[in-house]
Amino acid sequence: MASRDRWTERRSRRTGRAALGAARYREHVYTGTALFDVLLPDDSNSLKAKRAYVRPVVAALRKLDVAVAEVGDQELHRRSQLGVAAVSGDSGHLTEVLDACERLVAGRPELELLSVRRRRYGADD
């Protein structure tokens, strides 16, 4: 029980400092999204074969600490749209993360990257 009391005490101290910091500093949160439109190889003639190409890409993107999902063209065998979302407290870091995601998808030899659409949302949006 004593450890729980210490945890509650530390939490209230942290909350108090955060409230004080918010009064002095403006907080920034940046959200970025990217939509990758990719063309799969000719031998992707079933949804099972499509999944064999898409799943490793999704797993590799998740290692970059982003949220990723197949968001479009799910019924087509040779096309896929992958959506990526990231949140950061620094605009530059957010750009670096989205750049890394784009390099990863473009660097896959089995995929052809057709287009990339990016959006950034700042504190003022």
From TrEMBL:
Gene3D superfamilies: TT1725-like. This is DUF503 domain-containing protein. InterPro entries: DUF503, TT1725-like_sf. It comes from the Bacteria. Pfam families: DUF503 (PF04456).
